[in-house]
Amino acid sequence: MTLPSMFHSKNNRSFLARLLALALLTIFLAKGGLAIAETSPPAPRPLAVEMLTAERTPGKKTFAFTGEIVARSVLDVSFPTSGRILTISVSEGDKVARGTELARMESVQQEQALQAAQAALQAAEADYKQRKEEFERQNALLARGATTRIRRDEAERSFRIAEANLERTRAELERARKALEDTILLAPEDATVTARLADPGQVVGAASPVISLALGDGYDAVFHAPETLPAKAPDDIVVNLSLIENPTIAFKGKIRKLSPLVDPKTGTVKVTVGIIDPPPQIGYGDAVRGTVERKLPPHFNLPYTALTATRLGTAVWIVDPANFTVFLRQVTVSQFEDGIVTIESGLSDGEMVVGRGSHLLYPGREVRPAERIK
């Protein structure tokens, strides 16, 4: 069959009609799918976030610390010379009066030196007495013309030498006596023994601490506070103190010293509190608790998760209650603590602030409360 006759065939015309209909349907479906693909996506669902109600907190904060009671004036006493400790006569907690023997050092050499100095002094005194008598006799003979001036001058020279030698031996005896006295350690003032820093039989160097003494009746409480503590304490601030073992024993104190440096090992600041009218029940080394109330300007407390940053500084996300969309607000932070930040300005009472989930937001984002807390 030839090609023209094939197109004029009835069956062939029916086949071409079906083929044309199939092509038109394909084009229609393709255009319909394109139209679906070109439609805009649906709006995102509101994001569930933590919403916080900003409430102004009264300007008051309580600081609480645990420390130790120590002596206000401490003196470490030591021997002025080196040697071996023979005895230590006191123990920790002993009260000693001025001049009480605290410790003694081996003194064999010092005793021998003292005996030698005493013998030398006796010889010098005898020689001095003899030379003096001879000088006085020559003076009397010269006055009567019974001797020469040369012999008299020689007697005077010998007398002056003996006199100088006597002074020298007296000084040596004093040094030997002082060296022997230095082997005995005495209390310089009325005090309380707080620590023994050496033991009998131990060899110590000159000026090495042997015993620690608490002078006077003054007590201090020493605390190691977090570095967030204010750098300067008001002069009129009062610290409420109590013994940890017996909280009913309460007393007060004032801050005497606030270290300007932070301990690099502990990250704390040393605070020394002078105890006012210490009760008789307290003692050195007792554990003590101290509390301080500090007045602060009214502020807002928020968790650190609420903070975000912009090129202008610190900000938070504020929720618009009309449509529950968010926008940024610059705030001023006055203090950081563990998990909490203190907002000094930038917020108003009753405003809703986003907490957890703030890192997922952008201006105009619609949100819904996952948790409402104050």
Describe this structure in words.
The protein has helices spanning 3-7, 10-37, 108-144, 149-181; strands at 47-53, 60-78, 83-88, 95-96, 101-105, 184-186, 191-196, 203-204, 209-226, 239-243, 250-258, 268-276, 287-295, 300-303, 307-310, 313-320, 325-330, 332-336, 340-345, 352-354, 367-373. The radius of gyration is 49 Å and the shape is rod-shaped. The chain starts with a helix and ends with a strand. Among the domains are: 49-58 and 298-373, conserved putative lor/sdh protein from methanococcus maripaludis s2 fold (Beta Barrel), CATH 2.40.420.20; 107-182, Helix hairpin bin (Helix Hairpins). The protein is 28% helix and 38% strand. The strands form four sheets. Strands 1, 15, 16, 17, 20 and 21 form a six-stranded mixed β-sheet that branches. The model is unreliable at 1-8 and 33-38 (pLDDT under 50). It is of the alpha+beta class.
Give a short summary of the structure:
By secondary structure, the protein is of the alpha+beta class.
Question: If helices are DSSP runs of H or I spanning 4 or more residues, what is the number of helices?
Answer: 4
CATH architecture of the domain at 49-58 and 298-373: Beta Barrel
Percent of residues in helices comes to: 25-40%
Q: Work out the oligomeric state of the chains in this entry.
A: single chain
* Order of secondary-structure elements: HHEEEEEHHEEEEEEEEEEEEEEEE
CATH topology of the domain at 49-58 and 298-373: conserved putative lor/sdh protein from methanococcus maripaludis s2 fold
Structural class: alpha+beta
What is the average per-residue confidence, as pLDDT, rounded to a whole number?
85
Main beta-sheet strand count, sense and barrel state: 6 strands, mixed
